[in-house]
Amino acid sequence: MRARGGEDGIIDVSGNEIVQFIYDRIYSFYKGLAKVEMGGRFGFIDRAGNLVITCKYDHAEEFSEGLARVVIENKKYFIDTSGKIVISVDYEYAGGFNDGLACVCGNRKYGFINKKGEEVIQLKYEYAGSFHDGRAVIIKNNKYGFLDKKGNEVVPAIYDSLGFIDNEFHDGLICVVKREEQGGKSEKLVSYPEDYNSDIHEIEKGPRVTVMQEGLHGFVDKNGNEVIPLQYDHASFFHEGLADVEKDGKVGFIDKTGKTIIPFIYEYAHLFIEGLCSVKKDGKYGCINKKGETVIPFLYDNIDLLHNGLAVFTKEEKKGVVDNSGKIIIEPQYDELFEHEGCFVAANWILKNSFE
After folding, report:
1. What's the CATH number for 236-356?
2. 41-46 and 7-11: which strand pairing?
3. Are 1-90 and 236-356 in the same CATH fold?
4. Where are the domains of the chain?
């Protein structure tokens, strides 16, 4: 996709024009359709550039599970890939479909509808997120839990917070937090958009849930079993079989049984990616393997996540690239450096005296 003269179109790798340069914006394709904007209205094109759904909507979301949310003349609908209206949305808010259900909100209570528009889980929660792998986060009486698709509270709403922002299970587990009986602090604020009856675009980001939490972190499975006791000062989530957890100001790694695999000796840790993890020790970053062995020495001010065996590092405010054996591939010489679709994009800043 390229822009020309302020308008978007699509070309192939040979430079041939596939989609005319007539749109104000072309969004990403999803299962053969892409949202487009023209003159402040939204529609959808296919990969051949055909406008399969006319640009007539005031707002539109991308398709999810064959349905897209749209707004026209202040009325909200779900349409199918032919543009046919499938569901009229009579709720203040409606999320996209995941696992066959969509979260909806009315009178500031959340529940779920199916693809027929039927309310299958009662609107009674202070907040609900989308379903992923058969589970959806809910807030009930200011406590967090999870529902299954039948509406059963399989993880009871007894937790003060969740340990990670995406509210999803990773490797079958999710971090949960309970406020300590003594010494713990909790401040919870749930606020709604000022115009709660505004269109999908405006209320998509709400309500806001801000949690400042000191407490004990542990892990539960999808059935609510506390498989790793709540005993850590902080915990992230499992990835490639390990999770970083913090105790007494130091970070280590545990497996899904709660066994300590890598001791608590680090100041900070990223995720394990491609078998390696960037960690901080004595103020410098290096990479370790799953045995805790140093693979990339602790010489750097930062090391980003690995991708295809390579990672961007920072040293003395300049960025370079190191491989998974510790060999420097690109010397640190750039102010900005990041990976994009198999290539590295680099930049150096030119600073000018503002008084010249």
Report:
1. 2.40.128
2. unpaired
3. no
4. 1-90, 93-228, 236-356
Q: What are the two backbone dihedrals, phi and then psi, of residue 181, each rounded to the nearest 5 degrees?
A: -60, -40
Measured CA to CA, the distance from residue 282 to residue 117 in angstroms comes to 56
| Cβ neighbourhood burial of 74 (10 Å; 0-12, 13-18, 19+) | exposed
Q: Model's pTM, two decimal places?
A: 0.77
Cross-strand pairs, 176: 162, 218
Residue with tokens 């400042």: 212
Return the closest-CA partner of residue 190 out of 125, 104, 127: 127
Q: Tell which CATH architecture fits domain 1-90.
A: Single Sheet (2.20)
Mean pLDDT of the region 129-143:
94
Digit-coded pLDDT (tens) for 283-306 = 999 999 999 999 999 999 999 988
Nearest to 174 by CA among 189, 153, 190, 159: 159
96 in Cβ contact with 64 (< 8 Å)? yes
How far apart (Å, rounded) are the C-alpha atoms in residues 155 and 179?
Answer: 17
